[in-house]
């Protein structure tokens, strides 16, 4: 296993802290201590805590899409790939102990105080929706009379709702329910 670079370690530690305890509740000194680095090392890589926040968001986005690609790589059927997205989001929620979506959490915490953060999160959700739209369009090629825009919105909103519901309820039941709802839409 290759040795983790200092910049990667800083981002990993900050990511864990931002997600677990929140951006505002995480101090630079805690990041430095838990990453086991000198203060100068942090500032050699990031000019501010906000720069570190941007790196965190980029890391989460890359990992999200890469994770879904790896999760669904062997699935060729568009309907099955859509259903695998539900499984993927369920798996993410379970592995985080139902801690929620990184992007929803950071927007809820930072809000309008940072347009860069809210814009990034919005663009991330738009990319997710476009990925769903691509799968829905692929699915609809062999079907008649499907409103792909409505179906895309329904799937996107069902999944996002399941993430929020499972975060609150601390269980995955909402994913099982939307899996059935989406299957019904695709049949």
UniProtKB/TrEMBL annotation:
Protein's organism: Chryseobacterium herbae
Would I find Glycoprotein among this entry's keywords? no
Domain annotation HTH tetR-type: ranges: 4-64
PROSITE patterns per the UniProt record, alphabetical: HTH_TETR_2
Organism domain of life: Bacteria
Task: Identify the InterPro entries for this entry.
Answer: Homeodomain-like_sf, HTH_TetR, Tet_transcr_reg_TetR-rel_C_sf
Report the Gene3D superfamilies cross-referenced here. Tetracycline Repressor, domain 2 (1.10.357.10)
- UniProt name for this protein: TetR/AcrR family transcriptional regulator
Q: Which residues bind DNA?
A: 27-46
Q: Which UniProt keywords apply?
A: DNA-binding, Transcription, Transcription regulation
């Amino acid at each position: 296993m290759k040795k983790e670079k200092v910049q990667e370690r800083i981002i990993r530690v900050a990511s864990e802290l931002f997600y677990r305890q929140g951006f505002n509740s995480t101090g630079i000194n805690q990041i430095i201590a838990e990453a086991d680095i000198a203060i100068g090392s942090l500032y050699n890589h990031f000019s501010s805590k906000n720069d570190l926040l941007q790196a965190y968001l980029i890391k989460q986005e890359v990992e999200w899409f890469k994770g879904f690609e790896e999760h669904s790589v062997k699935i060729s059927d568009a309907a099955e790939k859509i259903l695998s997205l539900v499984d993927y989001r369920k798996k993410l929620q379970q592995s985080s102990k139902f801690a929620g979506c990184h992007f929803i959490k950071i927007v809820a915490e930072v809000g309008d105080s940072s347009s860069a953060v809210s814009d990034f999160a919005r663009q991330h959700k738009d990319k997710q929706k476009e990925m769903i739209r691509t799968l829905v369009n692929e699915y609809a090629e062999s079907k008649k009379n499907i409103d792909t825009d409505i179906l895309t919105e329904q799937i996107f909103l069902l999944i996002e709702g399941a993430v929020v519901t499972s975060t609150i309820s601390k269980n995955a039941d909402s994913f099982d329910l939307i899996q059935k709802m989406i299957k019904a839409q695709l049949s």
